[in-house]
Amino acid sequence: MKISTRGRYGLMAMYSVFQNYGKGPISINEIAEKEHLSVAYLEQLFALLKKAGLVKSIRGAFGGYELTRDPSNIKIKEILNALEDDIALSCSVMSNKPECRNLEECATKDILDKLQIKIDAVLDSLTLADM
Cα separation of 88 and 123, whole Å? Predict the structure, then answer.
């Protein structure tokens, strides 16, 4: 498992939105400046985050993005799932990856499954408010 730049930058962007929680929307330009990220790239990330129901957009001169719910109710796993294609360990029975052809004979299957369960538990136990 490797978290891509999309996942890392998405977490950074969500942290900026979290820091502004309760103060109104924050613009992508503000987030880009604060986190040293590209506006165009952030727009792509926020489209995914919005589709997942984690943020909402506010239009207008003082518009931007806000969280859709309390930061303590937004799990890190939700954010990564919205941004990453697959956060499963390769060849884990949970990954459904095409390279996993010999699951019955796979020497690493059991350990990867155990690791995946632990990783999922940690990501599911941490929230945006924990950052």
Answer: 12
Which residues lie below 8 Å from residue 27, measured CB to CB, with a gap of 6+?
A: 63, 64, 65
Measure the CA angle with vertex 74, ends 69 and 78; round to 5°.
130
Residue 20 has pLDDT above 90, yes or no: yes
pLDDT in tens, 70-104: 999 999 999 999 999 777 776 655 555 555 566 56
> Which residues, 6 or more positions from 51, have their beta carbon under 8 angstroms from its beta carbon?
82
CB 78 within 8 A of CB 69: no
Those residues whose C-beta lies under 8 Å from the C-beta of residue 70, and which sit 6 or more positions away, are 129
Pull the structure tokens for residue 87: 């956060």
* Alpha-helical runs (H) found in 20-108: 28-35, 39-51, 76-83
